[in-house]
TrEMBL record:
UniProt-listed InterPro entries: AAA+_ATPase (IPR003593), ABC2_TM (IPR013525), ABC_transporter-like_ATP-bd (IPR003439), ABCG_dom (IPR043926), ABCG_PDR_1 (IPR034001), P-loop_NTPase (IPR027417)
Molecular-function GO term, any one: ATP binding
The family this protein is said to belong to: Belongs to the ABC transporter superfamily. ABCG family. PDR (TC 3.A.1.205) subfamily.
Pfam families per the UniProt record, alphabetical: ABC2_membrane, ABC2_membrane_7, ABC_tran
Domain ABC transporter: 2-271
UniProt membrane topology term: Multi-pass membrane protein
Protein name: ABC transporter domain-containing protein
Localization (cell): Membrane
Organism name: Triticum turgidum subsp. durum
Superkingdom assignment: Eukaryota
This protein's GO CC annotations: plasma membrane
Entry-linked CDD domains: ABCG_PDR_domain1
Amino acid sequence: MLGLNRGRERICILKDVTGILKPSRMTLLLGPPGCGKTTLLQALAGKLNKNLKVTGEIEYNGVKLQDFVPEKTAAYVGQYDLHVPEMTVRETLDFSARFQGVGSRAEIMKEVIRREKEAGITPDPDIDTYMKALSVEGLERSIQTDYIMKIMGLDTCADVLVGDAMRRGISGGEKKRLTTGEMIVGPSKVLFMDEISTGLDSSTTFQVVSCLQQLAHISEFTILVSLLQPTPETYELFDDIILMAEGQIVYHGPKSCILSFFESCGFKCPERKGSADFLQEVLSKKDQQQYWSCTKERYNFVTVDQFCDKFKASQTGQNLAEELSKPYDESKGHKNALFFSIYSLSKWDLLKACFARELLLMKRNAFIHITKAAQLGLFGLITGTVFLRTRMGVDRIHANYYMGSLFYALLLLIVNGFPDMAMTIERLPVFYKHRDNYFYPAWAYAIPSFILKIPFSLVGSVALTSISYYLIGHTPEASRFFCQLLILFLMHTVILSMFRCVASYCQTMVAGSIGGTLAFLFTLLFGGFLVPRLPYHYNISA
């Protein structure tokens, strides 16, 4: 009625998408930008936006997506490498393994031991030790971390900080491999990767995909990787191909059959042309004609719908349809392959792990926290020297001076709390990634951050109060001193929490600066100094 919905229209992102992803095989997802690759990956990983309307079904081992926790069963790797720059590669993987747990490894290990005893088999000591180490829950350091670092080629930089634009750290290719390793260090055996070549050169992309190929073939992972323009060497590493255009699947099957399918449609890939480039250009209206090989027939543009119809009529399409029509054989799947609980650890273990992580980060940023506490002590000294050798009486005339000193202390505490907003905003992307993958809930992340800041707030408040209190000339009674110390300590704690709250709502530095300034102004406005609520008949006495 108000015109808010004017011009809004429904858009079909994916249409008639069907297929099968099998273990021990690595599938390449190809298609031009905007064809729905990211949406398909998010749909398979259970990470679609709640506002999207979805029809159809997605099943894992014959179980519908709504009947288990897909975020724990499958790992979704986005285009961006989001990590805490103050942590090393090993620490990042160790905490990831700790939060994700061991899954069904403990039960599998018990079953293996039982069968070994029944059959009278003596296992190899090294293999037995390795298998038992993998199945132990709650370890701060896991042998799985060393295994993943070896496979992903991260063992050479295990103790190097991840780094960022302001800190020297690992390279871009190592960050991309760390992003993958962070997800596969857990028990998940399904991996969806979206545009992992973003920001990487062709050589580094080839190395990353080679590591993924080893995971798929050795560890029996099911991997679907989206790439925009893979090189011929990278293309050859994949087993299957899914080619998309306009939200539809043009081809889904073995890599060895895709070129012959397009030849049957009248299009041939030139000898010196990369297969991946050909597959994407042959669907384009402006590039399709150059690949037309039927010289005896007149060329007419073949639409995506026509390609889809020809694929369904092809032998590969018929084999896929026949396989989809058969019900899933439950004997082929393990009962513990899917996850039905949101978090892998108990609430207490989650809290302990988050405490350990936050304590590590506070040690790495000790200079910042110590400097903030020292800053309050320095401001207390400067404030005290302003009132040094002044003679102020305890009366209504000088009351505003005392109130002004308290108001100035409030200003110092607010200014001292501003850096916490920037630090919180900097870590929000990593927190959202971990939260969406059910590493830990929000409360387990927030409580350690609040509690571990208390000692620094106490030290800063003690430094500010002990230096400035008697220099200003407040009442020398010990009870009044400790009362002011308690008030300043509680104020500092509340201010830090306020700025962390502003950061979590605003989420960017620009919006955070606006929100922080508004919070700052409201605190000043209702601080009791600008608009005092003191009754006129109130008498001030010693």
